[in-house]
Amino acid sequence: MQSDDSGSRTKRYVVFNNGTLYFNDVGLREEGDYTCYAENQIGKDEMKVRVKVVAEPATIRNKTYVIINVPYGDVVTVACEAKGEPTPKVTWLSPTNRPIPTLSEKYQVYRDGTLLIQKAQRSDSGNYTCVVRNSAGEDRKVVWIHVNVQPPRINGHLNAITSASGTPSPHISWIFPDRKILQTVTTTESRIMLHENRTLSIKQATFSDRGVYKCVASNAAGADSISVRLHIAALPPIIQQDKQENISLPLGSSVNIHCTAKAAPSPSIRWFVNGNLFVFPNGTLYIRNVSPKDSGIYECIAANMVGARSTVTLEMVRVMPPTLG
Q1: Ig-like domain: which residues (predicted)?
Q2: What is the distance between the alpha carbons of residues 75 and 84, in angstroms, rounded to a whole number?
Q3: Same domain (yes/no): 261, 313
């Protein structure tokens, strides 16, 4: 009988000097009749041996089609218990029919055929196929993995504890009337803040803050939004004093002339005196040590961001001449 290299057991078979025939990694192709010949000068003899390879086709013990529901972000394990002789090799195929590596950041296939998937995402949903093979045959099993995700839903209730729900937890951002987007929690005190609970707050709102603000909640399953229109109550200035008043003052005296107005937003008060501009935050004009040059028309103007300007009060100062003794 011919043999491969008798000095190495890595070959298909080896014949040793003592007449022993050694098979390496027996498979179905090794089945058959083998004849051993022995001879010398006197004669020869032979022996026939029939080799029967006992092989069991690879099969999966439980092939029932199952659906596994997995919470988003969880770890999922799927068993695939195979039997057969020789021991079957287990391979998992992804929903895109690609072989899954036995070890990676995302997957792990254990020796017993169990598949592990880390941090299940929506994209991990689908049919996974377990394939077992040996020299006698192969078998398959399909498992449907469904990763539970829910699109965001904004309830829109002002007193609700949770403004948006979804699986996974939705990401919240605010779109301003000027299309500016705020999605990062504000860490320092500022007039406009996005809080940890994703509530948007605006301090000391002005007329320029008016407009539509959109809250957008999004996750792997979709998005939802709600729009809120911010109205800033606007009232043009209304002067509280008489529209016209004549004042006569002794020479050298002092006087306070008031000009107050109701408006939203709060108005600025300006006085025009003989063409010269004076600005007093509290709306009061103070004249000290009245002299003849102070005579004239005093005009108070109140204005706010509504855009209206209103001339409301006329003040006349007439300086009386000194009394003769």
Answers
A1: 57-143, 164-231, 236-313
A2: 29
A3: yes
